[in-house]
Amino acid sequence: MNSVIRTEARQNRRQFMQASVAVAAGSLAANALAAPANKPETPISNPLCVFTKPFNSLSFDELADRIAELGFDGIEAPIRKGGHIEPEKVTEELPALVEALNKRKLEITVLTSDINDPDDPLTERVLRTAATLGIKRYRMKYFKYDLNGDIFAQIEQWRPKLKQLAAMNHDFGITAVYQNHAGSNYLGAPLWDLKLALKGISPADIGVAYDIRHATAEGGMSWPLTFKMIQPSIDTVYVKDFVWKEEDKRPANVSLGSGRVDKKFFKMLAETGFSGPISLHEEYLDHRNPELVPEHLAAIKTDLAALRTLLKTD
Predict the structure, then answer these.
(1) CA distance 34 to 220
(2) What is the mean pLDDT of residues 185-213?
(3) DSSP annotation of 247
(4) Can you give the residue range of the structural domain that contains 52?
(5) pLDDT at 21
(6) Spatial CB neighbours of 74, under 8 Å, sequence gap ≥ 6
(7) How confident is the model at residue 44 (pLDDT cuts 50, 70, 90)?
(8) Averaged over 52-68, what is the pLDDT?
(9) In what helix (H) or strand (E) does residue 243 lie, and over which residues does it extend?
(10) CA-only gyration radius of the chain, Å
(11) What does 24-46 look like in DSSP terms, one character per residue?
């Protein structure tokens, strides 16, 4: 019975997408034509977006204005608990955010979500809404290990969920990306485990948001090896930087280009022919303090200039 229900659900999703995506695409195209061309020309081919976690205090129009002024192509929008939009309100509020961005010739390049369970009712609601609005990718919520349990057994337990979620993404025409995050209990921290978890899943359905900061913190000198290993699955690249704090031996985020991230990464990335989005994360100021919005904007402007220079590295 469950397999019949899932088959019917997938058929319904396909019918929904055929009826709605074309309409949404036409609407988005019309808005884009009407939008002012206010971003500077750049030879960089990768779409550049910025994680807008520090800007929850701004209205959608204010957010769009500030990001357009900085010169990005889009945003990585936290549509999750405590983000710009709560998942329960996605059908009512996400269209307004997309409209505000379209007026400034911007897009939601990545939708950051709380999604990692295909059976959660909110999963289909968020994916359906995002796909209808023409959003192409979303970042998944992490899986975390129980360090008292068998690591390989836990990877195998997550694989059916990942496969089911990949099937949903395929039907909606949207890509999930899973970020590698440094830490003692994150799936994906060492990257080889993420390779195992995603075995047999197309990167068009679930790809990797490759974070060079976290890969460097976890891999030390071996990050080129794990980058080479995971490269075929990379859909999106995350950039930020860090240093090791002497007092407690923990990583601390710093401005891009001033820390431990090796500049040769950007040359290696270019050599792969990577043409996907690059998302800039500025995480060295307190994102919870709305009074720091001007400082965040200034920091992001500086980091974006550094990123453009790094991407042009010979």
Answers:
(1) 47
(2) 98
(3) T
(4) 2-311
(5) 45
(6) 47, 48, 49, 101, 106, 107, 108, 109, 277
(7) confident
(8) 98
(9) strand 241-244
(10) 19
(11) HHHHHHHHHHHS---SPP-S--S
pTM recorded for the entire structure? 0.87
Please report, rounded to a whole number, the percentage of residues in the chain having pLDDT higher than 90: 83
Residue 108: count other Cβ atoms within 10 Å of its Cβ. 26
Domain count, the chain: 1
| Sequential DSSP letters for 200-232 | T--TTTEEEEEEHHHHHHHHGGGHHHHHHHHGG
| Residue 110, beta-bridge partner list | 76
Query: Please, what sign has the CA dihedral across residues 187, 188, 191, 196?
Result: positive
| Paired sense of beta strands 234-239 and 48-51, if any | unpaired
- 297/180 Cα distance (integer angstroms): 26
Q: Give the domain CATH number at 179.
A: 3.20.20.150
* Alpha-carbon span 1 to 79, nearest angstrom: 33
Length of the chain, in residues = 314
Contacts of 181 (CB under 8 A, 6+ apart): 142, 188, 189, 211, 214
* pLDDT at residue 91 tops 90: yes
**36-54 average pLDDT score:** 75
pLDDT tens column, 209-234: 999 999 999 999 999 999 999 999 99
Largest CA-CA distance found in the chain, in angstroms, rounded? 58
Is 256:296 a contact under the CB 8 Å cutoff?
no
Beta bridge partners, 253, equal 242
